[in-house]
Each structure stands twice: as structure tokens, then as C-alpha cells.
């Protein structure tokens, strides 16, 4: 057989703890465009500095209407991803979003080469990804944080906002 296809693959053996995360932000209400446009450039600037453990970052677009954009990131390991997610400015963005989604919905799905997958969906009106076929439950208790959801509590780092602070009315926790 003769082929004109340049078929290639990759050797992932140098990355035994590779983590791939997809994140999406969807505009749910017209004023959500402002929220989306506020986060986009900030996220771009934050990854330009190549955070420790970030191997690659790609921007994605799922739809124009409703506006739904996202990113795919490849991380060396889960501790690197969690450490970055708990650092500034990401910590502040996530805390502020969890207090008020600003007319948008946010979701992420995480896949670990060593095993484990997890997801969270905040103010996402349509079920997508895992939520399109798997039972959905509140992100509370053992399902609150990423590391616990993938069964890697040894890699757990204190969340940006504790479950107690998130659900306590009037909380001013940092």
C-alpha cells in the first residue's frame, strides 16, 4: 500500500504523571460577555510566563452563539497544576468566580495519565462532557476538590476557597 499520510505518534514516557485539563467558559447572559472578555486576556498573560509544570497551552472555541471558549493545557503532574491553581492570579479569579459567575458558566475536565478523571461544572446550563452521560451530583464533601475527585488526596493542596467559606452566607474569606 502506498500512502501520502505523514503518520506520527508521541513518546509520553518522559511524562509519567502527565495531566491534561480542558476548561471552558460559556456566556449564559448578555452581560456575561464582559466577564468572558475580562478573563481571556488575563489567562493569556498568566500562561505566557510558563508557570512551573505547564508543558503546553492551547486556546479553543466551541461556539460563537452562545459564545463558548476554552483552553486545553498539558501539565507535568497534578501537584504542579494544583500549585498554580492555588497561586495568584488564578486563586483570585477562581475565588471571585465562585462568588459570582458574572453571567457565565465554567467547567473543566481533568485526565491523568496514571489514572483518574474528574470534572466540575459551575453554572453550566447544558450537560456536556462527562455530565452528558454520567450521574451528576453536587460538588460537596469528598467531591469538592480536584485531588479528592481523582482519588489523589496525597496531592491535595488547600482549595482557593474552602467548602465552608463558599457556602457560608456573607463570608469574606480571602
From TrEMBL:
Question: Superkingdom of the source?
Answer: Bacteria
Q: Please give the InterPro entries that the UniProt record associates with this protein.
A: Monooxy_af470
The protein's name is DUF4188 domain-containing protein
What is the organism of origin for this protein? Virgisporangium ochraceum
